Amino acid sequence: MALDLLRLLSTHGNSKTITTAIRTLSRAFHEDPLMHWLRCNNSNREFWLWLQLGLLMGRVYCTTNDIHAWMSQFPPESGNSEKTGYIPTRFLDAPGGIAILYPYLDPDPIPLPMIGRLLKLRLKVFIKDSLATRSSTRKRRNEMFHRAQENSYRLVQKRLRPGQKLWYLQTLAVDPSLQGRGVGKRIMQAIFQLIGHQPLILECSREANVGFYQSLGFEVIDTITLADAASKREECVTFWTMARFT
C-alpha cells in the first residue's frame, strides 16, 4: 500500500520535520548537474533556502522509514563509503526518500498558514539572488529551462486521452547512502498508487537514470540540451523529459 511507505509532509507544521526533509534533499541533489547549472553553483546557505522554497510548492511525501531504518533493512554494499553503513549521525533520522508531486496546470491552493512563510522565503531568495554576482545568469538560465519545459509538456498533452489528469513529479530524492538498494523503485510504485495510475511527467537530469525510469514504464519525450552562450564558458546541461501514460 502506498500509505504504508509514504506519508504526506505538513510543510507548515513541525520545523524539525521540514529540516530533516531538507537534509535528504540537499544530500541527494548535492551534485545534480541541472540543479548546479540553474543555480550557478551557489553557496550552501542559498541552496538551503532554495530547497525550503521548493518544499512549499507541491505535495511533499517522505518515506515513513528514516535512513537508519532503511539501512537496517538492506545490507550495506562493500567498496563504497556512502554505502557501507557510514553516515553522519545528524542524518540518521532524516527520511530515506522524498517526492514532491502536484497536478500539472492545476496546483493545490496554498493553505493560509503557509502564505506568510512562503512570502518570507521568496523575499530571502530574491535578496540573495539580487546580491549575487551571477544573478542575471541565474535568471537567464531559469527562463531557458522553463521555455524548454513548456515545449516538452505540449508534446505530452497532445497524447492525453479525454478525462486524464496529468501529474508532475518535480522531485524524487533518495539519500545517497540508500541509492542502489531499491528505495527509489518502491517510492515510484507508491506514487503510481497515489495518483491512480494517471499520466505522470518528470525531468531526469542524469543519463544514467533514464533506464531506471524506462523500467517503470516511462518513455523519453524530449532530450533537451540548454547552452548558455552568454556565459564566459558557454556552460551547458542536458536533461530528459519523460512521461508515463498508463
Automatic annotation (TrEMBL):
Designated name of the protein: N-acetyltransferase domain-containing protein
Highest rank taxon of the organism: Eukaryota
InterPro entries tied to this protein: Acyl_CoA_acyltransferase, GNAT_dom, Trichothecene_AcTrans
GO molecular function, one term: acyltransferase activity, transferring groups other than amino-acyl groups
Gene3D superfamilies: 3.40.630.30
Boundaries of every N-acetyltransferase domain copy: 100-246
Native source species: Aspergillus coremiiformis
